[in-house]
Fold this protein.
Amino acid sequence: MAAPTSSGRKRPDRARSLTWLGMTPFFAFIGLFLLLPSVSLVVGAFQNEAGGFTLENVRNLFEAQFLGAFWNSIALSSLTAGLGVVFGGRLAYAALTEGTPRWVRPVITTFSGVAANFAGVPLAFAFIATLGTTGAVTQFLSAVVGLDLYDSGFSLFTFTGLAITYLYFQIPLMILVIAPAIDGLRREWREAASNLGASSSQYWRYVGLPILAPSLLGAAVLLFANAFAAYATPYALTVGHVNLVTVVIARSFTGDVLANPHQGYALGLGMIVVIAVSTLIYTLLQRQVARWTK
Amino acid sequence: MKRRYSWSKMVWLFLGALYFLIPLLATLQFSLEEGGGQYGFGSYAYIFSDPMFWDSIWFSLKLSVGTIVISMVLVVPTVYWVHLRLPRLRPVLEFVSVLPLVVPPIVLIIGLLNLYRGAPAWFVGTPLILLFAYVMYALPYVYRSVDVGMQAIDIRTLTEAAQSLGAGWRTILLRVIVPNLRVAVLSGSFLTLAIIMGEYTMASLMLFTSFAVYIAYVGQMQTNPAAALTLISFAMTWIAILSLLSIGGGAGSDEVQIGSRG
């Protein structure tokens, strides 16, 4: 293919530009349906109804109502990311390493693939059937144990209820993303540590966790962004009673009275900033971790 | 030799199983309830006889297939070209392909609607914008599976062999590269199917009745048929993921099924 050409100097240039031409459909698509919409969102955030420039929408983000929505979303995402990392990591470790029956591994992997993708409206209904006012577990507890969940202050349609529901897709997602790292933990390391007299907690403190640290960090950021972007689950579960950013954005487009698209664009811009910042923190921490493990 | 079981691991698995199975069993019970302590398949019969159920499934299925076709046409040649001719561009491509994760679906759709507000009706009034939004939404997963598959085959040798036999680019792509990528393309497709069949956020904001929007609509009034629909939706996700795993088997099958939506 690299046969010398006698047709003059222009040939390599044209070949190079043709090579780059092959990339146009992909990047054009990204530009038209991802980058330009994002730019138009940013522009819209700085416009008023009449199309003039304004800082009001962005300034409004710091008002109690919107700040509260960001706070709720960030708190819920951090909490479920943290719990997802701990429980998902623990379950993945139990399922993927020795000490449990052989059939557990494929079952857990497959189920995680399904459950991580089983979110949104159906998931909300599954939890209403379980922990709603007439849910199976609610009724079981009141009939058998005599504990009335809803009298003792619990409700599925609150922050706590959302957190319990989110874990149904956060934990499986954690299992899927951490599986390769756990497979990378060699049994010899554990044996070497215990031969040298290390206890189980010492092994984890000085060997296991430092090795897993970069993967755990990456998983935490992924789980955070995953929960932060969720809209269908909280909407179907609480019909918008818990103030989350995604729910407020939807309301600023569909609410008859509250419709205010430009405020919605500003909120969307805020979401992108939060995710970008969390990715940035991840990159910085990743560098720190890389320094420890050297 | 008998395997030794670790009690703490077994306890963790048992607790996990409780958390993950109880909601499914509770939903099953709900879906079979027919009032007055009676159980039966009435809710399922009701759902299957509802024309809106079939319409919404058909709508979501068409969009899933459209998303898969456009994604593959866009991603396969691009990834092939970068692997073959522009390897330096791979990190860029990788970066671009995860960008959709930074823009949440609800933000992407309002941006798209704002940008194309003044566009002609054949574009704005049809599910076309939704289709293109879905392609973006599926991009990280499609790119990943195709990239993994492309790495596993020796595209340079395949390409040179095909060229020496006089094949053009189209023949090379369609009859040499794609057949060798079969597993990667299929697993990316099944994952996309699982994601798009359950997509609610963007479809509901564009006022289209996708399958998930239909489930939400039923759930507003009838809890028992909604429970039946929940299980039907779970079964559909299960089928898509099982198909993915059964064809995958080899490299990357654990990784390509990572997708999630809230």
